[in-house]
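Researcher: Next sequence.
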Amino acid sequence: MDTPQITAPPRAPSPVPGDATPSSGVIHINFRHAAGFTVIGNHLTQHRGLSLAAIGLAAHIQSLPAGARIGIKHLAQRFPESETRIAAALRELEAHGYLHRSRVRLADGRIATRTVSYNQPGAAAHPVPTPRPRTVPSKPAPQPTPPPRVTTPEPRPAPAPVPPPAPTPQPQPAPVLVPAPTTRTTPPPPLPQPQELTPELQRVATALLADLRRHAPQLVLSESDIHTLAPGVATWLERDAHPDTIRHALTTDLPKPLKHPAKLLRHRITTLLPPPLPGAQDVVALARPGVVVIPLQNCDSCDRAFRSRHPGHCRECHIELRTAA
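Model: Next structure:
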């Protein structure tokens, strides 16, 4: 009964095995990882030029296997950060040498982004090979004595089956040539011609066509094209179309790119041609339907104006002529 029984340790175990407990700051409780871990250098985790988002993103990327997807949209679905913040973190890692992104063309012609991750940017030019565990050669196990070999006659191979005769290929029908959808099957409409192509109309039409390139640089015409299109523009001018109206109709809403300016102008000159302006009598008849308008005539004697269907004398001169007769 006089033997002491020691059931309690002399002092409490230190939270940090082998180290003195600090009076302030963080206290580490470390256990060795046997599997599922990634070695990350302090130059990344304690980097003074990177944000916390960039450091965490770099640690996540280094823990992924080769071939894992690390696109911005994929990372935004994995983490609560927005695409803008993830893109900014990737640019930080690329600026400090932890990532390198390049555009490459795949075998099927598509363009993809290739991303290379460096766990230590300063040593990227001389990568350190990963040591492999040494394997201790084991002693060769004693080989059992093989049983005596029994010779048996080899079986004769079965005759190869005769393949059936190949079918005679049927002649392919001749391909039917279908014209392209853009091929014109009917000739284009003729270019309008004026009733009388005077030298003045020819001069104004030629000047208007040559001046189109000042308003639309793609409408550069040759002298032959201007000479061909001038009668059509002269027809517009003959129908009292103002030059500004013609220029606006020919230069508005041009296709891009414009391959054949002369063909486009010929089409617009032909299809957008305005009708002739109505005369004054036609305008009065349109304004007052059902009313017959009698034209004005000048009297042969007194040159006074009067309304009549036929030229001659006014009423007063007609009475005087009758009285004198």
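Model: The longest strand covers residues 99-105. The mean pLDDT is 78.
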